[in-house]
Amino acid sequence: MPIAGDLDHAVFLVQDLDKAERQAERLGFRPTPRGVHSAHMGTANATIVFPDRRTYVELLGIVAPTPANAVQRARLARGEGLFGLAFKSSDARVDAAELTRIGAADGEAVDFARPVALPSGVKNARFTVARARPEVTPAAWCFVCQHHTPELVWRADYLEHPNGALALSEIIGAAPDPRAIEPAWRAVFGERVTAIQGGFRLASATAPITMLAPDALVARLGALARKVKVEEPQLIAACFALRAAAPAEALWERARIPVSRGPGGTLLVGPEDGFGAVLCFHVP
Q1: pLDDT tens across 215-270, in order?
Q2: C-alpha distances in angstroms, 207 versus 45, 101, 169?
Q3: Count of Cβ atoms closer than 10 Å to residue 249 Cβ
Q4: Coil, strand or helix: which one is 276?
Q5: What three-state secondary structure class fits 30?
Q6: Rounded distance, CA 71 to CA 223, Å?
Q7: CA quadruple 58, 62, 64, 69: dihedral positive or negative?
Q8: I want to staple 217 with a disulfide (CB 3.0 to 4.6 A). Which of 132, 135, 212, 213 is the partner?
Q9: Structural domains of the chain in order of their starting residue, each with its CATH number
Q10: What is the pLDDT, as a whole number, of residue 162?
């Protein structure tokens, strides 16, 4: 099982990071100040961190084309959206060796950093990541992330959000035939991948990843799912736990963000307002 950790964060690739940050605020999130990664990465981000201190969302944009961001640029050429899934790692170099062992690695583990401006001064948030090749897990670009300075990521002054979001709770994807890609995911995640009605699920104590056939996707997301063309495996939605529904609904109404109700009362924001993906909100 080359990747054994729980989901750490989800990556939305965006064309315009300024615009994405403004949209995050309209949705009632408090994105952290912009971070620029090490030069060889050629990327910058804003993050949305949650009170669970276990999950977050990364809005990732390209600053300069480099070999390290070739995968992201290729995906962005097809449009914005949810693409990357990062899993927790205590030793990314060991995980990189395991990915290499099964022929899935996209190079060796990579160290990088981004500056974080704090009241006490600027400090560097440091990470080591090891990536699987995108084609290894159809629908998502999976990698492991070892945090060396987690206190600089889950900043106490950015954990609370006007919309009351508490945590990233699930990632939903779709494929024309989930059974056809399940063995590929099982090769990377082992017995954590199990069959469910209409697809399969990757178990994670933080936020599971659920891959569904088109009909099953409609059962989860309602009419909004019918607008999504599932011609190939792809990530469709990110789900968030809310403290309460009413304050979030009032905020979105003031921001003129269309919201629909899905099965079970889930609140749904469409891809045009969700960084290219459906955003699902629910009260646990």
Answers
A1: 999 999 988 888 788 999 999 999 999 999 999 999 999 999 999 999 888 999 99
A2: 21, 27, 5
A3: 17
A4: coil
A5: coil
A6: 32
A7: positive
A8: 212
A9: 7-158 (3.10.180.10), 165-282 (3.10.180.10)
A10: 98
Write down the residue that tokens 């006490």 correspond to.
120
Contact 79, 12 (CB under 8 A): no
Q: Which two tokens stand for residue 255?
A: 């921001």
Residue 227 near residue 270 (C-beta atoms within 8 A): yes
- Three-state SS string over 178-191 comes to HHHHHHHHHHHHHH
Q: Is residue 64 very low, low, confident or very high in pLDDT (cuts 50, 70, 90)?
A: very high
Measured CA to CA in angstroms, residue 61 lies from 40, 73, 80, 89 at distances of: 14, 9, 10, 24
27-55 pLDDT tens trace? 999 999 998 888 888 999 999 999 999 99
Residue 118: beta bridge partners?
A: 121
What is the 8-class DSSP label of residue 247? H
Which tokens belong to 67? 């070999």
Q: Say how far apart CA 25 and CA 1 lie, in whole Å.
A: 38
Distances from the Cα of 20 to the Cα of 15, 23, 97, 284, angstroms: 8, 5, 35, 27
The confidence band for 277, taking pLDDT boundaries of 50, 70 and 90, is: very high
- Are β-strands 43-49 and 35-36 bridged in parallel, bridged antiparallel, or unpaired? antiparallel
Q: Which of 42, 41, 43 is nearest to 20 (CA)?
A: 43
Residue with tokens 């961190």: 49
Strand segments (E) across 14-54? 35-36, 43-49
Cα gap 18→25, rounded to integer Å: 11
The structure tokens 């994670």 sit at 204
Q: What is the CA radius of gyration of the chain?
A: 18
